[in-house]
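Re: Re: ligand-bound prediction request (bumping)

Still looking for help on this. To restate: I need the protein modeled with adenosine-5'-diphosphate bound, output as structure tokens. Inputs repeated here so nobody has to scroll up.
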Amino acid sequence: MTTERTGVYPGSFDPITTGHIDIITRSRRLMDRLIVGVAVNTGKDPLFSFDERMAMLREELADLPDEPGLARIEVRPIEGLLVTFAKTSGASMIVRGLRAVSDFDYEFQMAGMNARMERDIETVFLMASERHTFIASRLVKEVALLGGNFESFVPKRVGLKLADAVARRQARKASAD
Ligand code: ADP
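Reply:
Sorry for the wait, this slipped through. Here it is.
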């Protein structure tokens, strides 16, 4: 029997922000293996394709230090039910970040439903760090699409890709008009 503790941190990561990286960095101290699970279907209209979101995560997370006492990181797709993915991956925890009261309702319901479906898997919440409380992928995209400065919300390489994606989307929109 393995005594290794595995957690899953699921999300859309459209795109990965400094807030996500903060949660990943902090949760690595709590387990041996952290699976960052990328939703294949976001249910939203993603700015980045699944492959782009996976590639950005892998690139950014490869820069994090690899030290004893910190979970090793795997980036994997999640399709279907999160608890099923967690169970088949050998995870005992689901990690989520909480930014504000507005996150609470949804997270509370999800954690409750997931606990009912899989009682062996705990949802663990980390409070957003003060510096990242206001950062949400959805708002970062909105700022970018409206021409605002998004540099401090995302890693540098992601910022360049975001600028490209916005230009692509605007070109597509202009040709459709
Ligand atoms: P979702 O699409 O489900 O909101 P995201 O990909 O945006 O998922 O985020 C995944 C997880 O990361 C969620 O638990 C979300 O609350 C958390 N999160 C997102 N941004 C931040 C942030 N700035 N600080 C802390 N947690 C965050």
